[in-house]
Protein backbone atom coordinates (compact mmCIF):
# COMPACT_ATOMS: atom_id res chain seq x y z
CA UNK A 1 0.00 0.00 0.00
CA UNK A 2 2.92 2.28 0.49
CA UNK A 3 3.67 2.66 -3.26
CA UNK A 4 0.08 3.81 -3.82
CA UNK A 5 0.38 6.48 -1.08
CA UNK A 6 3.57 7.86 -2.60
CA UNK A 7 1.94 7.98 -6.05
CA UNK A 8 -1.03 9.88 -4.54
CA UNK A 9 1.35 12.32 -2.82
CA UNK A 10 3.27 12.82 -6.07
CA UNK A 11 0.01 13.42 -7.97
CA UNK A 12 -1.14 16.01 -5.40
CA UNK A 13 2.20 17.83 -5.73
CA UNK A 14 1.85 17.92 -9.52
CA UNK A 15 -1.71 19.28 -9.28
CA UNK A 16 -0.66 21.91 -6.75
CA UNK A 17 2.35 22.92 -8.87
CA UNK A 18 0.20 23.15 -12.00
CA UNK A 19 -2.39 25.24 -10.18
CA UNK A 20 0.26 27.64 -8.83
CA UNK A 21 1.76 28.06 -12.31
CA UNK A 22 -1.67 28.74 -13.77
CA UNK A 23 -2.43 31.38 -11.12
CA UNK A 24 0.96 33.03 -11.66
CA UNK A 25 0.28 33.27 -15.40
CA UNK A 26 -3.17 34.74 -14.74
CA UNK A 27 -1.68 37.40 -12.47
CA UNK A 28 0.99 38.28 -15.03
CA UNK A 29 -1.61 38.55 -17.78
CA UNK A 30 -3.77 40.84 -15.63
CA UNK A 31 -0.85 43.16 -14.92
CA UNK A 32 0.10 43.83 -18.53
CA UNK A 33 -0.70 47.27 -19.91
CA UNK A 34 -0.99 46.11 -23.48
CA UNK A 35 -4.20 47.07 -25.23
CA UNK A 36 -6.20 44.25 -26.80
CA UNK A 37 -6.06 44.05 -30.57
CA UNK A 38 -8.94 45.85 -32.25
CA UNK A 39 -10.68 44.09 -35.10
CA UNK A 40 -11.67 47.35 -36.75
CA UNK A 41 -10.52 50.91 -36.49
CA UNK A 42 -13.32 52.76 -34.73
CA UNK A 43 -14.13 56.45 -34.89
CA UNK A 44 -13.65 58.49 -31.72
CA UNK A 45 -16.83 58.80 -29.65
CA UNK A 46 -18.95 61.85 -30.29
CA UNK A 47 -20.00 63.92 -27.31
CA UNK A 48 -23.64 63.66 -26.28
CA UNK A 49 -25.85 66.35 -27.77
CA UNK A 50 -27.34 69.06 -25.62
CA UNK A 51 -30.85 68.37 -24.33
CA UNK A 52 -32.33 71.41 -26.00
CA UNK A 53 -30.03 72.83 -28.68
CA UNK A 54 -31.97 76.09 -28.77
CA UNK A 55 -31.81 76.53 -24.98
CA UNK A 56 -29.76 79.60 -24.21
CA UNK A 57 -29.84 79.34 -20.45
CA UNK A 58 -28.13 76.58 -18.50
CA UNK A 59 -28.61 76.55 -14.74
CA UNK A 60 -25.88 74.48 -13.08
CA UNK A 61 -26.85 73.23 -9.64
CA UNK A 62 -23.44 71.60 -9.13
CA UNK A 63 -23.57 68.52 -6.91
CA UNK A 64 -27.15 69.39 -6.06
CA UNK A 65 -26.98 70.42 -2.45
CA UNK A 66 -28.78 73.62 -1.62
CA UNK A 67 -30.95 75.96 -3.62
CA UNK A 68 -30.74 78.68 -6.26
CA UNK A 69 -33.05 81.32 -7.63
CA UNK A 70 -33.38 82.60 -11.17
CA UNK A 71 -35.57 85.22 -12.85
CA UNK A 72 -36.61 84.71 -16.46
CA UNK A 73 -39.07 86.07 -19.00
CA UNK A 74 -42.06 84.18 -20.35
CA UNK A 75 -41.47 81.68 -23.19
CA UNK A 76 -37.75 81.17 -22.40
CA UNK A 77 -36.15 77.74 -22.51
CA UNK A 78 -33.65 76.64 -19.89
CA UNK A 79 -31.83 73.48 -18.83
CA UNK A 80 -31.17 72.47 -15.23
CA UNK A 81 -27.88 70.59 -14.90
CA UNK A 82 -26.93 68.54 -11.81
CA UNK A 83 -23.83 66.37 -11.26
CA UNK A 84 -24.37 62.67 -10.67
CA UNK A 85 -23.36 59.12 -11.46
CA UNK A 86 -26.10 56.62 -12.34
CA UNK A 87 -23.78 53.61 -12.01
CA UNK A 88 -24.05 54.07 -8.24
CA UNK A 89 -27.76 53.31 -8.52
CA UNK A 90 -28.69 56.93 -7.83
CA UNK A 91 -30.48 59.17 -10.32
CA UNK A 92 -31.75 62.70 -10.13
CA UNK A 93 -35.53 62.76 -10.26
CA UNK A 94 -37.87 65.69 -10.78
CA UNK A 95 -41.28 64.52 -9.56
CA UNK A 96 -44.10 65.34 -11.96
CA UNK A 97 -46.54 68.00 -10.80
CA UNK A 98 -49.81 69.30 -12.16
CA UNK A 99 -48.75 72.92 -11.73
CA UNK A 100 -48.20 74.18 -15.27
CA UNK A 101 -48.46 77.90 -14.51
CA UNK A 102 -44.83 79.07 -14.46
CA UNK A 103 -42.50 76.46 -15.98
CA UNK A 104 -43.13 73.14 -17.71
CA UNK A 105 -40.84 70.29 -18.78
CA UNK A 106 -39.69 70.78 -22.36
CA UNK A 107 -38.42 67.31 -23.26
CA UNK A 108 -37.00 64.25 -21.57
CA UNK A 109 -34.29 64.45 -18.97
CA UNK A 110 -31.04 62.66 -19.76
CA UNK A 111 -27.63 61.75 -18.38
CA UNK A 112 -24.59 63.23 -20.16
CA UNK A 113 -21.11 61.83 -19.34
CA UNK A 114 -18.48 64.41 -18.42
CA UNK A 115 -16.40 65.58 -21.38
CA UNK A 116 -13.17 64.17 -19.97
CA UNK A 117 -14.84 60.73 -19.73
CA UNK A 118 -16.72 60.80 -23.03
CA UNK A 119 -14.64 57.82 -24.14
CA UNK A 120 -17.46 55.56 -22.97
CA UNK A 121 -15.93 54.24 -19.76
CA UNK A 122 -18.48 52.52 -17.58
CA UNK A 123 -18.90 54.10 -14.16
CA UNK A 124 -17.84 57.57 -15.23
CA UNK A 125 -19.60 60.55 -13.63
CA UNK A 126 -21.36 63.28 -15.54
CA UNK A 127 -24.49 65.35 -15.13
CA UNK A 128 -28.22 64.99 -15.47
CA UNK A 129 -30.04 67.55 -17.63
CA UNK A 130 -33.68 68.59 -17.27
CA UNK A 131 -35.10 70.88 -20.01
CA UNK A 132 -37.85 73.38 -19.12
CA UNK A 133 -39.78 76.22 -20.69
CA UNK A 134 -41.34 79.17 -18.91
CA UNK A 135 -45.03 79.71 -19.69
CA UNK A 136 -46.32 82.56 -17.58
CA UNK A 137 -45.65 85.04 -14.78
CA UNK A 138 -45.24 83.89 -11.22
CA UNK A 139 -42.87 81.87 -9.08
CA UNK A 140 -42.38 78.12 -8.81
CA UNK A 141 -39.99 75.92 -6.85
CA UNK A 142 -38.54 73.01 -8.82
CA UNK A 143 -37.38 70.19 -6.56
CA UNK A 144 -34.91 67.50 -7.62
CA UNK A 145 -34.12 64.39 -5.56
CA UNK A 146 -31.05 62.14 -5.86
CA UNK A 147 -32.40 58.71 -5.04
CA UNK A 148 -32.41 55.03 -5.90
CA UNK A 149 -35.73 54.19 -7.56
CA UNK A 150 -36.11 50.78 -5.92
CA UNK A 151 -35.71 52.10 -2.37
CA UNK A 152 -39.10 52.93 -0.91
CA UNK A 153 -39.67 55.05 2.21
CA UNK A 154 -36.03 56.22 2.18
CA UNK A 155 -34.95 59.85 2.27
CA UNK A 156 -33.08 60.97 -0.88
CA UNK A 157 -29.29 61.20 -0.64
CA UNK A 158 -29.45 64.86 -1.78
CA UNK A 159 -32.11 67.42 -2.59
CA UNK A 160 -31.65 70.39 -4.92
CA UNK A 161 -34.10 73.26 -5.33
CA UNK A 162 -34.43 75.91 -8.00
CA UNK A 163 -36.91 78.73 -7.57
CA UNK A 164 -37.95 80.08 -10.97
CA UNK A 165 -39.54 83.51 -11.10
CA UNK A 166 -41.06 84.56 -14.42
CA UNK A 167 -41.56 88.28 -14.87
CA UNK A 168 -44.68 89.60 -16.48
CA UNK A 169 -44.11 90.83 -20.01
CA UNK A 170 -43.79 94.60 -20.22
CA UNK A 171 -46.32 96.33 -22.49
From TrEMBL:
Q: Which Gene3D superfamilies does the record match to this protein? A: 2.60.40.2020
Leader sequence range is 1-29
Q: Which GO terms describe its molecular function?
A: peptidase inhibitor activity
Q: Which residues form the Proteinase inhibitor I42 chagasin domain?
A: 72-164
* Keyword annotations of the record: Protease inhibitor, Signal, Thiol protease inhibitor
The answer to whether the entry has keyword Zinc-finger is no
User: Entry's Pfam families?
Assistant: Inhibitor_I42
The protein depicted here goes by the name Protease inhibitor I42 family protein
Species annotation: Geitlerinema calcuttense NRMC-F 0142
Amino acid sequence: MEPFASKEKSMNQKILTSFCCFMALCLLAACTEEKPLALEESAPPTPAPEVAPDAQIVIDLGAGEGSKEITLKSDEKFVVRIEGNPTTGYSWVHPATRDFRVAIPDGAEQFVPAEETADGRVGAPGHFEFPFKTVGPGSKKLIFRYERPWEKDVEPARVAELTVTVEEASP
